[in-house]
Amino acid sequence: MKITVIGAGNVGASTAQRLVDKELANEVVLVDVIEGIPQGKALDIYESTPVNGVDVKVIGTNGYDETANSHIIIITAGLARKPGMSRDDLLFANADIVKSVTEQAAPKSPNAIIIVVSNPLDVMTYVAMKISKFPRERVFGMAGILDTARFRTFIAMELGVSVKDVTALVLGGHGDSMVPLPRYTTVSGVPLPELLPKETIDRLVKRTAGGGGEIVNLLKTGSAYYAPSAAIAQMVEAIVRDKKQILPCSVWLQGEYQLNDVLVGVPVKLGAKGIEQIVPLELTVEEAASLKKSADDVKANIAKLKF
Fold first, then answer.
1. What share of the chain is helix, strand, coil (3-state, %, to 5)?
2. Can you tell me whether residue 266 is helix, strand or coil?
C-alpha cells in the first residue's frame, strides 16, 4: 500500500503522521512545491517510526515521479483561510492548485482513489474528478466526518458525557449551509431531541456550521488540522482495511436524494474499492429542503469555474 499526500502544510503533514502511526501503508509520499519543506517533514516523520515501532517508509518530494502507482492520493494543497474569510473565498486560487496537482498526480497512479480535502471542499472535489476523469467511486471529499465530529464534540460538551456515546450525522456541503440532522443523532441510543430543547440544539447546529471558522478566528494565522487529519485517517483506514464503514463523504450525486450533478456530503459505504454504496436516508420535507439548498450553493460555486 502506497499513499501520497499532496500538500505538506499543517493538514498534510499531520495526515502523513497519522497514516504512519497507524501503519496504513508501506510507503507514504509527501509532496509540496516549496523546496525542503516536504523533505524535512518526511524525514522527521520517518525518524519517529523506530520510536513508535512501525515500519513505514516516508518520502518527501517536490515532484510527482515518486508518487507513481499510489493506491490512495490525498489532496490537501491550497491556501488556508484567514480570519473573516469563508471557504468560498478560496474558490479560484485553490481551483487552480487542485487542477494542477491532479493533472500531475492522476496519470502516474491511474487506479488510485483520490480523497480531496482542500477548500471549498465540495467544489475542489468536483475539480479533481473532472481533471482526473476517474469514476465517482474513486474521487470523493472529506467533510462530513469532520463536521460530524464537531457536532458530536459540542453535544458531549453540552451534556457532559463521553464523545464515545454520541452518534451524529451531518449532510450537505462543507460550509455554512451544511445540514446537521438532530433526528438521526443519539446519545447511547437516546434521540437528541429527548435530551436537549430545540433552542439548544439549534445553537449547537449553528456552532457546528461555523466550527472551522471558530478555529480560524482563534488561531489568527491558519486553520484546523488536528481534527481534519483524524477524519482523513479514518477514511483511509476504512479503505485500506476494507471495513465497509458507513461514513458521510462528499460524493457526486446522480439522482440520489433527488439531487443531480452536484457534490454534497451523504452517508456512503467506504471500502477497498472506494465508495461502494450511497446509503439512502428518509428525510423530512424540511431536511430535504435544507439539503437541496446546500447542494444549490455548491452548484452555484461550480458554475463560477471555467472548466
1. 50, 20, 30
2. strand
Q: Is 36 left (phi over 0), alpha (psi -120 to 50) or beta?
A: left
71 is catalytic: no
Q: Which amino acid, 41? A: K
Catalytic residue (choose from 174, 269, 292, 299): 174
CATH superfamily of 2-141: NAD(P)-binding Rossmann-like Domain (3.40.50.720)
Per-residue pLDDT of the chain (307 residues; tens, 9 = 90+): 999 999 999 999 999 999 999 999 999 999 999 999 999 999 999 999 999 999 999 999 999 999 999 999 999 999 876 777 666 678 999 999 999 999 999 999 999 999 999 999 999 999 999 999 999 999 999 989 999 999 999 999 999 999 999 999 999 988 778 899 999 999 999 999 999 999 999 999 999 989 998 999 999 888 899 999 999 999 999 999 999 999 999 999 999 999 999 999 999 999 999 999 999 999 999 999 999 999 999 999 999 998 7
Q: What is the domain partition of the chain in residue ranges? A: 2-141, 144-304
Per CATH, domain 144-304 is 3.40.30.10: no
The pTM for the full model equals 0.95
Residue labelled with grid coordinates 468560498: 88
